[in-house]
Amino acid sequence: MYFSERNKLKPQKEIVLGNLDRTCKNRLWNCIYDIYRRNGYDSLEIKKSLNYVLDKVGEKYTYSSLLGSLFGQTVEDGVKRLEQVWENSEWYCEFDIIETILETKIDVTYSDDETPIPQLFNTIFEEEKSGYRIIDNMIIAITDPVELEEIEESLNTPFDVVDESLTKALKFYSDRESPDYKNSIKESITAVESMCKIICDDDSLELGRALGKLESKGIYIHSAMKEGFKKLYGYTSDANGIRHGGIDESEVMAEDAKYMLVTCSAFVNYLKEKYLKTQGEYDGKD
Description:
Residues 1-156 form the HEPN AbiJ-N-terminal domain. The chain is mainly alpha-helical. The chain has helices at 3-6, 22-38, 44-56, 66-70, 75-87, 91-103, 117-127, 145-154, 160-174, 181-200, 207-213, 223-237, 254-278, and strands at 133-135, 138-140.
């Protein structure tokens, strides 16, 4: 907190959703500019990444040949064109640009301590009180560090089928143009169900039955917690649940999908640790 804020000469920012103020917008662009500038304009990786982003936003490629340079089609000019797009875009299109840059998996860092690029953007979001963070190269409306940690950890299990469901849940939740909260909830609970099937070594089990069989596999869960997840499963899977169309899409809110995403991520992490301990594979570092 700076002098003006500490002394209440300037009001403190509140968490902002659905917009970017000018300071945050400028700082994010400065980060993008430095990402492309840091390794030098002659880097092949920089050129490939920039061309990919320019193509995605509907701009012409930049070129690296002498002829291209003579006609102003340099990488530097490409960055300037991208800046023009950035300046004239709505906030959600600017987020699309950031996600597109992250898609290229550009292997450069911004600072001497080799800070990963997503962390650079997250630092700006946090400092500028933006209500968004990057997880798995997607920008989502979650700021609580504990919630973020649970989701990030759950996306890196040794089990592909679990990771795939949670990644889908995250994508459905974070889609800014057309969020699908109903399917996000479905995928969140499917991830838990898949984790239980792996533990029980039985693909035919639905979650309610699988929870009842965990003890036979050496996984002991308090009865209240077990019943709580059975009820959550009922919310999605009984005759009036989300999976069977019993709940209309308009009735499912962002906060519902967020709750299920965070809760199911935490439960997947919990089950994973217990399971790996029974297999002698858990090292306590996750």
